[in-house]
Hints:
By secondary structure, the chain is of the alpha/beta class. It is built from 9 helices and 17 strands. The protein has 2 domains: 183 residues, Vaccinia Virus protein VP39 (Rossmann fold); 140 residues, Alpha-Beta Complex (Nucleoside Triphosphate Pyrophosphohydrolase). Strand 1, helix 3 and strand 2 form a beta-alpha-beta unit. The model has no long low-confidence stretch (mean pLDDT 91).
Amino acid sequence: MDITRTAWSEHYNTGWGFRQLGEDEKGLLVAHAPAPEGGRALDIGCGTGELSVYLASLGYTVDGADFAAGALERARAEHAAVEGVRWLCLDVECDDLAALVEDGYDLIVLRLSIAFIRDRARVLRALAARLREGGALVVITPTVENTPEDRRHIALDENELAALTDGFEHVEQFDAEGLAVLVLRGPAGSFSAEERGRPEPQAVFGAAAVVTDKFSRVLLGRSTRGMWELPGGRIETGESAPAAAVRELTEETGLTARVDDAHVITVLHDDRLDVRRVTTVVRVACWDGELALSEPHRFVRWEFHDLNTLATLGRIFAPSAQALAAVWPGVLPGLPPVHSYLCSPAGSPVPGEAAEAVRCASGWRTP
């Protein structure tokens, strides 16, 4: 959902709030995230501060963050006597996170807020990077199963919940009076290149669209098969690879681009069982429109990802992984070799490409 700061502030200024913190939620937090000595907690989307104050009562020093000024005004007024809580005006998806504590947090909670974040995987990884050793990232959200039809835009389904767990070593899920509570630990993460089964014989010729935004983030879709994929698909009879990439981009994501702005980087060739698989890697940096879930039977959602987190995403469709590695060598280490027929000089920019993406194209080293 795309809701502005002003709209959220008006929501709080008119006296509205959100579902009160339940006893089951409190019990799960006490059981699975007890405050260590000197413990710090971060409450993302803190609203009027009920959860932040509760965490402080458990012994945490708390940062309560929200991007709605109206929410923070109420939090400061309603909890003026509470010690150990700092209120921060922060958009966790768009703002610089430098205001957060440098030495990290033992607990980070997103309560009733994850459904309103577009690039969830990117945000979760940025937050998880700020966890102290042994720390937990807790997501509390309504589920589609337990939410009325007219309010399902604030809830997540099973596939969306599963996508949140990618890249975490330890995952626990609980129910709290109809809310899903995810406790995520071990954010170092890994990835594996996944296959989707045997393609139809004898050869498959397709295009993979490597699409970046102005921040050099790359677009990937979380498929109903439980893996991340680039936009793309088969090249139709009489169709060029750039045209196929642009068509698939629109059909799958709702974004539009000109064929002239789609640039072939390389052609990859590998074998999947007895089928020859040929993938044309097409770069697109100039596009228009808003992301849409045009094919919900194939994809759960679309998100832009930071390049340095790709190797923590878990399951990635193998041709997509190879295409990403062709554009940014080394970004996904350890992939099996493929034949590559370079069509554009390595590291050369395409129109509209951000400087960071151009730099990364000439080589990448993971930490």
